[in-house]
Design brief:
Elements: E1 16-21, H1 25-35, E2 39-44, H2 51-60, H3 66-75, H4 80-87, H5 102-114, H6 117-127, E3 133-136, E4 142-148, E5 153-155, H7 157-162, E6 167-174, H8 185-193, E7 196-199, H9 204-212, H10 215-223, E8 227-231, E9 235-237, H11 246-257, E10 264-268, E11 285-288, H12 293-298, E12 302-306, E13 309-312, E14 315-318, H13 320-331
Parallel strand pairs: 1-2, 1-7, 2-3, 7-8, 8-10, 10-12
Antiparallel strand pairs: 4-5, 4-6, 9-11, 13-14
Helix pairs in contact: 1-3, 1-13, 5-6, 8-10
Function: Required for morphogenesis under gluconeogenic growth conditions.
Pfam family, one: CofD
Family: Belongs to the gluconeogenesis factor family.
């Protein structure tokens, strides 16, 4: 179902869309938005400490590059061969480089050369002919912290997801413990100047919220006149969103920023075929997120429900093209009155 509100049409320019998140969902959405002629800015989490990104981070203390690498490729105009080289991951038999993606090593090297991840990514964006902007959420590596419902706490994204506990709240700290985490000014200004700001799809506590917990970034999301959209995950996630409805996801977002700030929610209504999901390969994925339209409306959300489902490789994903189309429909229908902040 779709609820409406007063709109105006943006004419004569590409709509400005800021997408905030991390993980596998972010590059899918930004790639489709780019292909549908949006002016895309991707704000990428820097609190990941797992996989190749985590190993590189531990050795040379740079912002984890994996999510940034994938978004750069998604927005790049380079030929496929060059992009595949950037994405190439060394075989496990190559002891020294085992598991590392070439792009991660390049980003780490440029971070040292340019004195930080932000300028490194801007240089690499030019080299890779990126159509849009890729902004690390912070120029410094951050640590994700979580309090669980049993009162215990943990630090580190990998440790949090491996704990198998239910998360109550998260926050971020500077990995060196020296300064309060801040987003660079370009991130804040992009959010304030956007027509729409999109959060998700992605892990609620470990991909979306780490960005919003950077104080000036979260405040920019509260202050922007843009339409704020949340793309609800199709499936619940073990240890993060077990038994969550779509409204529960939004309640957690609102609680972390202390306001009902989500304007529109995109909800998948296409059924997931039983026994399609490979539970061994996707062992964190549980069951489809249950709808709670009344709960969403009570928080002031417009609901757009449609078939956003894409099935591939025995996994359950969002169809990037369908999600991007809805986002751009909203971008061309920005409210005429100053948005009421709740």
């Amino acid at each position: 179902m779709t609820e409406t509100k007063t709109i105006r049409v943006i004419r004569g320019r590409r709509p400005k869309v800021v997408v905030i998140g991390g993980g596998t969902g972010l590059p899918v959405i930004v790639k489709s938005l780019r292909e549908q002629n949006a002016d895309v800015t991707a704000v990428v989490t820097v609190a990941d400490d797992g996989g190749s990104s985590g190993v590189i981070r531990n050795y040379i203390n740079v912002v984890p590059p994996g999510d940034i690498r994938n978004v750069l490729v998604a927005l790049s105009d380079l030929p496929e061969l060059e992009k595949s080289v950037f994405q190439y991951r060394f075989d496990t038999s190559d002891a020294f480089f085992a598991g590392h993606a070439i792009g991660n090593l390049i980003i780490a090297a440029l971070s040292e050369m340019r004195g930080g991840i932000f300028q490194a990514v801007q240089s690499l964006s030019a080299m890779m002919k990126v159509d849009g902007h890729v902004y690390p959420a912070s120029d410094r590596p951050l640590t994700l912290n979580a309090e669980f419902t049993d009162g215990t706490t943990l630090a580190g994204e990998a440790e949090i997801t491996a704990a198998g506990k239910h998360i109550k709240r998260v926050w971020v700290t500077d990995s060196n413990g020296e300064v309060k985490p801040q987003a660079v000014d370009e991130v804040v200004q992009a959010i304030l100047a956007a027509d729409v700001v999109v959060m998700g799809p992605g892990s609620l506590f470990t991909s979306v919220l780490p960005n919003l917990m950077i104080e000036n970034l979260g405040q920019a999301v509260l202050q922007t006149q843009a339409e704020v959209i949340y793309v609800v995950n199709i499936m619940t996630q073990k240890g993060e969103t077990e038994r969550f409805t779509d409204a529960d996801h939004v309640r957690v977002l609102n609680a972390h920023l202390g306001a009902n700030f989500v304007d529109t929610v995109l909800v998948n209504i296409a059924p997931v075929p039983s026994h399609y999901l490979d539970q061994q390969k996707y062992n964190e994925i549980l069951v489809p997120v249950r709808p709670d339209y009344a709960g969403l409306r009570a928080m002031g959300c417009r609901v757009i429900s449609a078939d956003f489902l894409k099935l591939r490789d025995h996994g359950v994903f969002h169809d990037g093209d369908k999600v991007a189309s809805e986002i751009l429909n909203l971008a061309f229908q920005v409210g005429t009155m100053k948005k009421r902040k709740r």
